[in-house]
């Protein structure tokens, strides 16, 4: 006779209660050893890999004139494995690279010139990653609709790569347009993909057929799992809507949803600018949802009511690559203790915000709203605790920033790549130092 897991049953019960009451449940915490205030304010680059991304030749091989206005290639995504001992970065040069966090050295290079590579995502199998494709194959004008559909499925497949023998284990075909989000479940082999085809698919690494599908999302979708793997969020940037689903009932309607509403953007005589979401990430304690945006404000929401509890300012927006395609999406990250948020900036700087509750409160809470219509209060605006890389000591750009899930360090990347550690307190009369030991 099969026995249920009491822990999972408790979480499922809390989720059901939350969907009915809208109150924040006390989910089991996955907080890590907390960073101290002094550590958070004293990060410095311990290793910098200048010119990590391979740039095109100055003189094109076909003999044509070089283009002076082409942007430099950059790292566009990164991830850490579950142990925190390896970091994988993927770039526009169509390579992805594994770094050893214990030595601070590059370990392996892998090329994906045929498909391109983006949204690199670690699985729970050591050395195995998922990634999306960036290339589209030209289809002959005489091709049938079936041939066009098959080519679209092939071009937009998510690819499952093994570093041990440098080969692809599976191709997950289901999207007909570019994949813009991959999210691995923290507890099992399930993962989510969002796409410009306005769908979200749920997969399992053990089969190449999608287990579930959300359709008619009215725009491209970004996704994120909570730390227990029981809930996932789907953001629709075009509509500024975030929806929450139970993972065991993804074929049903979301149990909660909200339009991101920020009165702090209001200016006299001007229409409110749109909030263009580019990423979602739950905090490890399950209480908050970080919403990365293309604009100069990121948001922290209550994870179940989806109300804004903090506005993060002080960085420069990343902007767009082309219309509707953002340059941002991987530049924001929680620390594992759910106390701080990191973000890259359009000017290359890196900001860190302190999200610990103040004034004796246990949690961040949304502002109380007056009963009168039209007088909504904005959530508190936080300025960075520290702004790093002001002199480009950690690289020219900070398009991607990610905190290690197990170690007190983070990585940043753009044209260059850097590994950051808290500076050690020096003995009196000696200089500060940072090393990878």
Describe the structure.
The chain has 437 residues and is mainly β. It has 3 helices and 31 strands. A 5-stranded mixed beta sheet has the order 18-19-20-21-27, with no helix packed on it. β24 (332-334) and β25 (340-344) form a beta hairpin. The longest helix has 16 residues, at 6-21. It is globular. The model is unreliable at 1-8 and 21-31 (pLDDT under 50).
Task: Please summarize what this structure is.
This protein is mainly β and 437 residues long. The protein has 3 helices and 31 strands. It has helices at residues 6-21, 37-40, 145-155; strands at 43-49, 75-80, 86-91, 95-100, 105-111, 118-122, 128-132, 158-162, 167-172, 179-184, 190-195, 200-204, 207-214, 222-225, 231-236, 241-246, 256-259, 277-282, 288-293, 298-302, 308-312, 320-322, 325-326, 332-334, 340-344, 350-354, 381-382, 386-388, 400-403, 410-413, 417-422.
**What's the total number of strands?**
31
From the N-terminal CA to the C-terminal CA, the straight-line distance is 50 Å
Tally of alpha and pi helices: 3
Strand content: 35-45%
Mean pLDDT: 86
Q: Give unreliable regions as ranges.
A: 1-8, 21-31
* Strand arrangement, major sheet: 18-19-20-21-27
What best-fitting shape do the alpha-carbon axes yield?
globular
The radius of gyration is: 22 Å
Portion of residues in helices? Answer: under 10%
Helix-strand makeup class = mainly beta
Q: Outline the biggest β-sheet.
A: 5 strands, mixed
């Amino acid at each position: 006779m099969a026995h249920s897991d009491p822990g999972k049953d408790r979480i499922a019960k809390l989720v059901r209660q939350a969907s009915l009451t809208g109150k924040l449940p006390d989910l089991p915490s996955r907080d890590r050893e907390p960073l101290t205030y002094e550590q958070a304010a004293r990060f410095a680059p311990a290793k910098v890999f200048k010119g990590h991304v391979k740039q095109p030749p100055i003189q094109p091989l076909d003999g044509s004139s070089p283009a002076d206005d082409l942007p430099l290639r950059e790292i566009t995504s990164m991830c850490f494995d579950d142990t925190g001992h390896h970091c994988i970065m993927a770039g526009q040069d169509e390579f992805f690279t594994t770094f050893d966090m214990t030595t601070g050295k590059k370990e392996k290079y892998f090329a994906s010139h045929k498909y391109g590579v983006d949204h690199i995502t670690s699985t729970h199998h050591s050395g195995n990653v998922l990634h999306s494709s960036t290339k589209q194959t030209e289809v002959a004008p005489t091709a049938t609709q079936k041939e066009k559909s098959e080519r679209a499925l092939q071009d937009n497949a998510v690819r499952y790569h093994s570093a041990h023998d440098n080969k692809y284990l599976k191709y997950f075909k289901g999207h007909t347009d570019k994949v813009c989000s991959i999210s691995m479940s923290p507890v099992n082999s399930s993962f989510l993909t969002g796409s410009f085809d306005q769908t979200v698919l749920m997969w399992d690494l053990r089969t190449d057929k999608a287990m579930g599908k959300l359709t008619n999302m009215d725009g491209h979708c970004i996704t994120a799992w909570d730390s227990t793997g029981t809930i996932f969020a789907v953001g629709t940037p075009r509509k500024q809507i975030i929806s929450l689903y139970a993972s065991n009932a993804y074929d049903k309607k979301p149990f909660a949803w909200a339009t991101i509403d920020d009165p702090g953007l209001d200016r006299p005589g001007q229409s409110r600018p749109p909030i263009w979401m580019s990423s979602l990430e739950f905090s490890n304690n399950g209480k908050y949802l970080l919403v990365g945006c293309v604009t100069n404000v990121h948001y922290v929401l209550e994870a179940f009511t989806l109300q804004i509890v903090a506005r993060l300012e002080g960085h420069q927006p990343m902007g767009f690559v082309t219309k509707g395609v953002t340059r941002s999406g991987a530049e924001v990250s929680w620390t594992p203790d759910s106390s701080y948020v990191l973000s890259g900036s359009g000017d290359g700087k890196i900001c860190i915000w302190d999200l610990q509750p103040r004034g004796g409160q246990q949690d961040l809470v949304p502002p109380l709203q007056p009963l009168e219509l039209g007088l909504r209060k904005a959530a508190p605006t936080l300025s960075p605790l520290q702004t790093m890389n002001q002199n480009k000591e950690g690289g020219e750009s900070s398009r991607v920033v990610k905190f290690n899930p197990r170690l007190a360090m983070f990585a940043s990347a753009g044209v260059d790549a850097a590994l950051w550690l808290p500076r050690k307190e020096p003995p009196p009369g000696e200089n500060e130092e940072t090393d990878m030991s």
